[in-house]
Amino acid sequence: MPGLSLHVTTLNFLGTRFRPLSLQLPKPLFPIAGVPLVEHHIDQLAQLPGLSEIVLIGSYSSDLFTDFIGRCQQTYRISIKYLQEQQPLGTAGGLIAQREIVVGDYPEAVFVINGDVCGDLPVDEMVARISSLPEDSCLLLTTEATREQSGNFGNVGLFSLKFCQLSRKYMQ
């Protein structure tokens, strides 16, 4: 995909719904269909032309990811970094705290995804769509949650097509 040079996956989730399993293994490394959850992202992203690096941001100990990252770098032939937060900073907090590292080399484009989303994501189509837009930035959202469920996931408010806020309460 032209223009995409960096991908960031945020791993800022505690895995409370995976307990007691997540007490022994970080949720991003929990096997889904025999493969660690976050590796599903890496597998899909590594196939994107022009992607030069994958950055994982989270508050888990970096020691827990060393072997995993080494294996994935060999398997997928792509640079992978893990940036550890000193404390959990929430969905976008890690991006803000690590912004100088994430955009320090001025990548042409940055693609960010939550690391606990699992599925056959059409990342090539998503990147193609984003690349075709005239704006400098884009936010892709889903409407899969019902109004009752939305309090569990947060809501994004838009004002004049600009990001306004992320709220835990339903917004109209």
UniProtKB/TrEMBL annotation:
Source taxon at top rank: Eukaryota
Record protein name field: Nucleotidyl transferase domain-containing protein
Xref: PANTHER family: SUGAR-1-PHOSPHATE GUANYL TRANSFERASE
Domain called Nucleotidyl transferase: residue spans: 15-155
Residues of the signal peptide: none
Entries under Pfam families matching the protein: NTP_transferase
